[in-house]
């Protein structure tokens, strides 16, 4: 029987600062054992939208959305905000440190349903990590043909807080992708993109929905709330919209009871839920 | 004690009818033998449900809310009142404006665990009747009679202040039971026949579950962020469990030393029958020896230096 | 099932025999607290009182090390801790045994391919024999029938003892392979039909006693209606959010995980946690979905009486042992709450 608490040893390969205030960093890990990477990517078939439990020995384990795509086979990336005990220690680690990973966990985005559809990825603030994974996955030449139009909406408070800045520049130039980057405020004359809150940019730029339109929304609660209203106005129905929820987690496998919302367990039934499922949920989050 | 109960109900009804208080906080009967629960009567009809007897064990000062502008009448034994005094001294509330003290000249509470033990186990207690100097326990195979004197709560045997020193009204039983003299256990080190003091302490607390009921039922533990919660799971680690248990009890004892009125609510709440009070009782004795200070006796009294209060580390907790 | 008679005077020898091969635990009361203690000769056994800490502590211990590791080498190694040796719990009340089956619905669910089982819990279930002792005199806080069980219910048990006077009737459940080791022909005799009749009457009487006591009621309304009841705020007024109900409850299984390390050697462990504690749902950002007593009291009772049954064929997450009712310092009574939810 599998012990769901054992970890895959991973070594910290690179650390990249993502934001001007240095509170968001991307940590890139490599599996120590190739056969374990095989299990993670192939047997367990990691797909975008899933998370992993990252373990710092002697400190603790935290759930993190996986920022790298399954197509980036040799690496496992997490973009982490320094906010608590474990994340603060993580931010101090040197390359070469050995950590542990459990995963992939959770349900991920519903890739079966998204085949041949037009997808709107809408992200705000720090919650862009699994959207990055999804975008890289969809843009991969092996997969691009399986999806229709892709719209990307990504906003942050100011230019310094945007994640993956280099990649964003490339995506903006991509001719097979409709990209809208926005900041709440900008003083810079060099800012070439939108200024405004994401829900209003979505209202401006996203086409009306049809049967083939799906949307994935990740962000802080207020941004999600207003984006969902906007999507409704665009004709999106609840089963066409997906959100990724967060909650305090400990085991990550549906046993410890911390992440439940009514009958639903965020780590094992989610973390991705359709709007229709969200509307059924009790207001306990 | 029925007469006392009638007096309380009558007064409560009057206060509520005249709208002099928003609620009367007292006790009402619970759903199993000897169970009493904190109860807020908000109308004369509800006041009929108030009760007073030898099982009104918990300390109602723990249940006085500081939110809002309510004026509440509280049925207060000596120990409940002393805790209200401490709250007043610490600025948690203003007793003179927010509380109507319905003082009870308490005859001492009985210990349900002792009664259950006399019955042969908790499951065997079907009913408990206290009249006169004997307690009658109905058990499945008949009845057991025991002396009231043998089942007093230990903290009540050691009580130094049966009634509030000042109250809006004082209620007394015209024919009170006399509680027996205790051996004052004086917070001597827990002595369980072990070799060393450390062993004795570990033994004393070995059954502690870290449920925190002692802390949560204690009126003095009102910090919005308790030291335990700063890193809760750290206190329950598998590697050194009994050491963390002792940490918890020692830290807490030092936080309530010089404030604790030894009401016994902690021990009554403890599901493992641990006499939690012993550590702080000893500290209280030490403070009394050096400063003559007894907690909770004087609303406007001075408190010795070195006695903790939550507002020291949470300025926002001080409301008045 | 097969039934045997064990004369009471032979009980010590029987226990001694079992203790030769197993780590036998028996209920012993010291200073009013009944706990399952390692068997020793001449212990006074108490089969009437509920163990203060339920049998769940043998399957999901309060503190349990999950992994040991060592960072001295160039990668943290982890080894599983070894399961405890085979235990035999002698004199478990049927409510406690049934609770283990309920725990298994969460921790050892094997109903589908996607199910995840907890290896530590499962190993203990596989390695533990439970011999139950039926309740001929249920207490004022007992309510197992309305919770789905009964004073002589066999759920979770390998065998069940009924006290029929000078003798004990030992019923072995043959569909439980582990139960075979409980048969010792030199100490036991085949049960007679009279003894079986006596046992049946004792069971009937116990059920009758329970039927006169307050019951648990399965709430009818939908969860969305129950969620908004004023009951939660009213109850939370006196709830002090300690952990007594959850820690003593045989069907509560929530746990917390922590890491400890010292000089390169560390453990990852878990311990009981409680949805009644303020930190239970606290996010690192400071957001708390259940910020106050009202939300947490609601969670406890909704989980026990609405969420769990909705997920598990209507089965309530309660076995009617009555510990929460007896030991709650403010007398919050799940039977009363259930009636107010209904």
How much helicity do the residues of chain C have? Answer: 25-40%
- Cross-sheet strand order for the largest sheet of chain C: 3-2-6-7-8-9-1-10
CATH fold group of the largest domain in chain A: Rossmann fold
Multimerization status = heterotrimer
Which runs of chain A of at least 5 residues are low in confidence (pLDDT < 50)?
Answer: none
SSE blueprint and pairings:
The complex is a heterotrimer of chains A (285), B (320) and C (342).
Chain A: E1 8-17, E2 24-31, H1 34-43, E3 51-56, E4 60-65, E5 76-81, H2 85-91, E6 98-105, H3 111-114, E7 118-124, H4 129-139, H5 141-144, E8 150-156, H6 165-173, E9 178-183, E10 194-195, H7 198-205, E11 213-218, H8 221-233, E12 241-244, E13 260-261, E14 264-265, H9 266-269, E15 272-274, H10 275-280
Parallel strand pairs in A: 7-8, 7-11, 8-9, 9-10, 11-12
Antiparallel strand pairs in A: 1-2, 1-6, 2-5, 3-4, 3-6, 12-15, 13-14
Helix pairs in contact in A: 7-8
Chain B: H1 2-17, E1 23-29, E2 36-41, H2 44-47, E3 50-51, E4 72-76, H3 78-89, H4 95-98, E5 99-104, H5 112-119, E6 127-131, E7 134-139, E8 142-147, H6 154-157, E9 169-171, H7 197-204, H8 213-217, H9 241-256, H10 265-269, H11 278-291
Parallel strand pairs in B: 1-4, 4-5, 5-9
Antiparallel strand pairs in B: 1-2, 1-3, 6-7, 7-8
Chain C: E1 2-7, H1 11-21, E2 23-30, E3 33-38, E4 63-70, E5 77-80, E6 87-92, H2 94-107, H3 119-127, E7 128-133, E8 159-163, E9 167-172, E10 189-190, H4 193-211, H5 223-227, H6 231-236, H7 244-248, E11 255-262, E12 265-272, H8 293-311, H9 323-327, H10 334-341
Parallel strand pairs in C: 2-6, 6-7, 7-8
Antiparallel strand pairs in C: 1-9, 1-10, 2-3, 4-5, 4-12, 8-9, 11-12
């Amino acid at each position: 029987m599998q012990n769901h608490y054992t970890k895959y040893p991973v070594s910290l390969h690179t650390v990249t600062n993502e934001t001007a205030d240095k509170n968001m960093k991307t940590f890139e890990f490599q599996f120590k054992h190739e056969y374990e990477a095989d299990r993670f990517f192939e047997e367990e078939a990691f797909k975008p939208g899933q998370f992993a439990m990252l373990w710092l020995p002697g400190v603790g384990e935290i759930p993190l959305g996986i920022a790298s795509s399954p197509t980036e086979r040799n690496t496992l990336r997490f973009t982490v905000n320094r906010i608590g005990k474990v994340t603060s220690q993580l931010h101090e680690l040197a390359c070469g440190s050995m950590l542990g990973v459990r995963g992939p966990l959770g349900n991920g985005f519903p890739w079966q349903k998204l085949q041949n559809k037009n997808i709107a990825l809408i992200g705000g603030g720090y919650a862009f990590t699994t959207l990055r994974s999804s975008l890289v996955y969809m843009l991969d030449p092996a997969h691009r043909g399986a999806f229709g139009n892709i719209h990307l909406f990504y906003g942050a408070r100011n230019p310094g807080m945007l994640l993956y800045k280099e990649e964003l520049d490339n995506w903006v130039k991509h001719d097979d992708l409709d990209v809208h980057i926005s900041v709440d405020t900008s003083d810079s004359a060099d800012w070439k993109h939108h200024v405004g809150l994401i829900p209003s940019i979505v209202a401006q730029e996203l086409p009306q929905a049809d049967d083939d339109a799906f949307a994935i929304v990740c962000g802080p609660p207020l941004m999600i709330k207003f984006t969902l209203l906007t999507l409704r106005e665009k004709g999106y129905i609840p089963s066409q919209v997906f959100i990724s929820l967060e909650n305090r987690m400990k085991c990550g496998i549906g046993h410890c009871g911390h992440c439940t919302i009514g009958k639903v367990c965020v780590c094992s039934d989610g973390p991705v839920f359709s709007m229709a499922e969200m509307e059924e949920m009790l207001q306990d989050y | 004690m029925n007469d006392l109960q009638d007096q309380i109900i009558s007064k409560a009804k009057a206060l509520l009818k005249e709208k002099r208080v928003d609620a009367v906080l007292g006790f009402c009967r619970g759903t199993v033998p000897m169970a009493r629960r904190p109860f807020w009567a908000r109308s004369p009809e509800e006041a009929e449900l108030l009760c007073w007897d030898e099982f009104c064990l918990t300390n109602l000062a723990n249940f006085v809310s500081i939110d809002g502008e309510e004026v509440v009448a509280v049925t207060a034994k000596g120990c409940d009142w002393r805790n209200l005094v401490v709250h007043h001294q610490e600025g948690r509330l203003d007793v003179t404006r927010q509380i109507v003290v319905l003082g009870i000249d308490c005859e001492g509470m009985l210990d349900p665990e002792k009664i259950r033990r006399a019955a042969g186990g908790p499951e065997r207690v079907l009913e408990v009747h206290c009249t006169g100097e004997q307690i009658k326990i109905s058990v499945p195979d008949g009845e057991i009679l025991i002396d009231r004197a043998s089942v007093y709560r230990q903290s009540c045997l050691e009580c130094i202040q049966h009634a509030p020193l000042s109250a809006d009204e004082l209620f007394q039983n015209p024919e009170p039971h006399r509680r027996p003299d205790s051996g004052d256990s004086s917070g001597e080190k827990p002595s369980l026949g072990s070799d060393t003091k450390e062993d004795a302490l570990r033994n004393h607390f070995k059954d502690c579950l870290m449920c925190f009921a002692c802390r949560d039922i204690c009126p003095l533990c009102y910090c919005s962020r308790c030291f335990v919660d700063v890193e809760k799971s750290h206190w329950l680690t598998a590697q050194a469990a009994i050491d963390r248990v002792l940490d918890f009890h020692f830290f807490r004892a030092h936080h309530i030393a010089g404030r604790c009125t030894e009401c016994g609510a902690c021990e009554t709440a403890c599901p493992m029958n641990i006499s939690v009070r012993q550590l702080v009782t000893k500290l209280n004795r030490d403070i009394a020896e050096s400063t003559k200070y007894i907690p909770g006796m004087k609303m406007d009294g001075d408190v010795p230096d070195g006695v903790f209060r939550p507002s020291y580390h949470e300025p926002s907790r001080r409301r008045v | 099932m097969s039934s045997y008679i064990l004369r009471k005077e032979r009980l010590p020898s029987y226990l001694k025999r079992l203790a030769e091969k197993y780590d036998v635990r028996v209920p012993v009361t010291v200073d009013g607290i009944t706990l399952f203690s390692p068997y020793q000769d001449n212990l006074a056994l108490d089969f009437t009182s509920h163990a203060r800490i339920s049998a769940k502590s043998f399957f999901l211990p309060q503190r349990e090390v999950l992994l040991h590791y060592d960072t001295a080498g160039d990668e943290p190694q982890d080894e599983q801790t070894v399961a405890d040796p085979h235990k035999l719990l002698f004199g478990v009340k049927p409510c406690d045994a049934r609770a283990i089956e309920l725990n298994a619905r969460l921790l050892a669910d094997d109903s589908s391919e996607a199910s995840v089982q907890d290896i530590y819990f499962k190993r203990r279930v596989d390695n533990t024999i439970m011999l139950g002792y039926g309740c001929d005199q249920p207490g004022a806080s007992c309510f197992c029938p309305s919770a789905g069980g009964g004073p002589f219910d066999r759920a979770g048990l390998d065998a069940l003892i009924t006290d029929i006077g000078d003798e004990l009737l030992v019923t072995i459940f043959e569909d439980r392979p582990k139960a075979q080791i409980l048969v010792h022909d030199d100490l036991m005799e085949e049960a007679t039909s009279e003894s079986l009749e006596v046992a049946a009457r004792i069971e009937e009487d116990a059920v009758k006693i329970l039927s006169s006591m307050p019951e648990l009621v399965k709430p009818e309304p939908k969860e969305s209606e129950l969620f908004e009841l004023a009951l939660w705020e009213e109850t939370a007024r006196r709830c002090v959010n300690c952990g007594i109900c959850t820690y003593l409850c045989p069907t509560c299984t929530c746990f917390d995980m922590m890491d400890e390390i010292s000089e390169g050697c560390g453990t990852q462990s878990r311990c009981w946690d409680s949805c009644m504690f303020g930190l239970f749902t606290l996010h690192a950002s400071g957001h708390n979905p259940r910020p106050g007593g009202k939300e947490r009291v609601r969670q406890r009772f909704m989980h026990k009486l609405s969420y769990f049954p909705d997920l598990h064929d209507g089965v309530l997450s309660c076995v009617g042992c009555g510990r929460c009712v007896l030991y709650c310092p403010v007398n919050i009574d799940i039977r009363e709450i259930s009636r107010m939810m209904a």
